[in-house]
Design goal:
- The protein is built from five helices and twelve strands.
- It is of the alpha+beta class and 170 residues long.
- The strands form three sheets. Strands 2, 3, 4, 5, 6, 7 and 8 form a seven-stranded antiparallel beta sheet that branches.
- Strand 6 and strand 7 form a beta hairpin.
- Helix 4 runs parallel beside helix 5.
- It is elongated.
- It starts with a helix and ends in a 10-residue tail after the last helix.
């Protein structure tokens, strides 16, 4: 919960999902160590080892992945993935503080689309930045998508909700 609210963690910068004993990379955060290390959405995480360890730890579930891949800032992890039926050992990936965006935006036709993943410390600023980009592109209609949003900080909800004030009830 603290990671979701603060919007950062020390790791490599991927979102994963586990089912049937396999853990798949769902999203690679732009600018993250994972992106630089060559991880891609759709990769199946098989095993990892820290620098200095001789043996790879084989993953049996998503909890294993999270526990093994997060670590001390500046430490190094080696990861093996399955991609399109091939097993690939990726180059060394150095863990660091990763900022997790809570807002994703894009233009679809002539409509701005903003997905708010969670309400954390930076959500209000990220939402305002998205709206400013839309305004510069003369986009005057916006869809705000909060599906699957687990919630978060009430103050951030209020910052992102037009026409509300800090004393509003939500």
């Amino acid at each position: 919960a603290n990671i979701r609210i603060s919007g950062s963690l020390v790791g490599i910068g991927v979102t994963v999902s586990g089912s049937s004993g396999r853990t798949v990379v769902m999203k690679v955060i732009v600018g993250s160590p994972a992106e630089a290390g060559g991880l891609r959405a759709g990769d199946i995480l098989l095993k990892a080892r820290d620098k200095g360890e001789d043996q790879f730890f084989e993953f049996t579930n998503a909890a294993d992945v999270v526990k093994k891949i997060r670590g001390a800032e500046g430490s190094t992890v080696f990861i093996v993935v399955e991609r399109a039926g091939s097993t690939i050992e990726l180059p060394a990936i150095q863990r660091r503080k990763v900022i997790i965006p809570s807002v994703e935006s894009r233009v679809i036709g002539n409509i701005g689309y903003v997905a708010i993943q969670s309400f954390g410390e930076h959500t209000g600023d990220e939402f305002e930045d998205a709206l400013a980009r839309f305004q510069r592109q003369n986009i005057d209609r916006v869809i705000v998508d909060v599906r699957d949003n687990p919630g978060g900080l009430v103050g951030s909800v209020l910052e992102a909700a037009p026409g509300t004030s800090p004393d509003a009830t939500v």
